[in-house]
Design a protein that fits this description.
Elements (H helix, E strand, L loop, with lengths): L2 H13 L10 H9 L4 H24 L1 H14 L10
Length: 87
């Protein structure tokens, strides 16, 4: 590994970020540059939202049977400790 690669690897792992290549529409890219928008920050932020949303969807899908069974139990038997609830 060259010194440049080593320095790059250290820099990216310390910051928690990694350089990647992606393709963007020319007109949007030029408009963003003209408006001084931090493209990396916007892409990272939006991708983070998309990943979180997809993780939530997958969790709901993976646990749908349990949630359905739990809801059926609550509907049939009521909430646990409901008789002691004061509100």
């Amino acid at each position: 590994m060259s010194a440049t690669q080593s320095a790059h690897r250290t820099r990216t792992s310390v910051s928690g970020k990694r350089a990647v290549n992606l393709s963007l529409s020319n007109d949007v890219l030029e408009a963003a540059k003209h408006l001084a928008i931090n493209i990396s920050q916007v892409c990272d932020s939006h991708l983070r939202e998309v990943v979180r949303s997809e993780q939530e969807r997958k969790w709901r899908e993976d646990h749908a049977d349990f949630i359905s069974a739990y809801n059926a139990t609550i509907e049939a038997e009521g909430l646990p400790l409901d008789e002691w609830r004061s509100f």
